[in-house]
């Protein structure tokens, strides 16, 4: 059984109970971790506070990860409240909706910039801040998708951003390894989250995934949560810079 008792985890990207971040939060809390939940803005505050009511001991903090001043403020609050961090979960991604509807060749400069700023650079920014509080080492976990490697219709600029995210995981792992901080990505199969609804043809993606994956089914949020708990624990002490697939085996298939 995974034991995260006495460890402090901060989770970015918990929007609602369909979020992958929600499944991760549940698994970390069940394993004994103390949770700090970050919500994006004042509009999301009531939603976040409603969610943490089901996570005993969890606390909510506001932070827009595209704003350096808010990141600095959040980590000052975390330092004051917990003194240190052990786990960081980055479950954040965004691209303007129109960028996921048009052909990829029509990607706009601003859409490209925004997708990479929110989905990729934010991992660097929060990891840099978290590393200062990970005085006993730590585990940083982000979320990616197979569209980083192969063309997935309608995934468009998010696929390019996820490819950059996976490269970022490797570079951060190399930088932070000397501090015993591990950095890994989980590549989950398509899941019907609020964010995923913005991708055209999601139903077709889910159907194709279930038909072609060796396990012949779609991925459950709880499976991603369990993998995150493993990566957060000492059981994964020798794993860093990796992309771990939780996709019912879909990625191994040629066709």
From TrEMBL:
Keywords: Fatty acid biosynthesis, Fatty acid metabolism, Lipid biosynthesis, Lipid metabolism, NAD, Oxidoreductase. The active site is at 145 (proton acceptor), 155 (proton acceptor). GO terms for molecular function: enoyl-[acyl-carrier-protein] reductase (NADH) activity. It comes from Acidipila rosea. It comes from the Bacteria. This is Enoyl-[acyl-carrier-protein] reductase [NADH]. Belongs to the short-chain dehydrogenases/reductases (SDR) family. FabI subfamily. Substrate binds at residue 95. Pathway: Lipid metabolism; fatty acid biosynthesis. InterPro entries: Enoyl-ACP_Rdtase_NADH, NAD(P)-bd_dom_sf, SDR_fam.
């Amino acid at each position: 059984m995974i034991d995260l008792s006495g460890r402090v985890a901060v989770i970015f990207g918990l929007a609602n109970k369909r979020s992958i971040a929600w499944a991760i939060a549940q698994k970390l809390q069940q394993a004994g971790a103390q949770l700090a939940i970050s919500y994006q803005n004042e509009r999301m505050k009531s939603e976040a506070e409603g969610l943490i009511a089901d996570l005993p001991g969890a606390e909510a903090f506001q932070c827009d990860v595209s704003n350096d001043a808010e990141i600095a403020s959040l980590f000052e609050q975390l330092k004051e409240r917990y003194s240190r961090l052990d786990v960081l979960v980055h479950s954040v991604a965004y691209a303007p909706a129109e960028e996921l509807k048009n052909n990829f060749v029509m990607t706009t400069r601003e859409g490209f910039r925004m997708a990479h700023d929110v989905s990729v650079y934010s991992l660097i920014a929060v990891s840099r801040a978290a590393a200062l509080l990970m005085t006993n080492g730590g585990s940083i976990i982000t979320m990616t998708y197979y569209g980083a490697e192969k063309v997935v219709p309608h995934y468009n600029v998010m696929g390019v951003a996820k490819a950059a995210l996976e490269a970022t995981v490797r570079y951060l792992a190399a930088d932070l390894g000397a501090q015993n901080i591990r950095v890994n990505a989980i590549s989950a199969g398509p899941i019907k989250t609020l964010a995923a609804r913005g991708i055209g043809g999601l139903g077709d993606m889910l159907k194709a995934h279930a038909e072609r994956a060796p396990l012949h089914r779609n991925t459950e949020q709880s499976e991603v949560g369990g993998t995150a708990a493993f990566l957060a624990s000492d059981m994964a002490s020798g794993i860093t810079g990796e992309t771990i697939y939780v996709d019912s085996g879909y990625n191994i298939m040629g066709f």
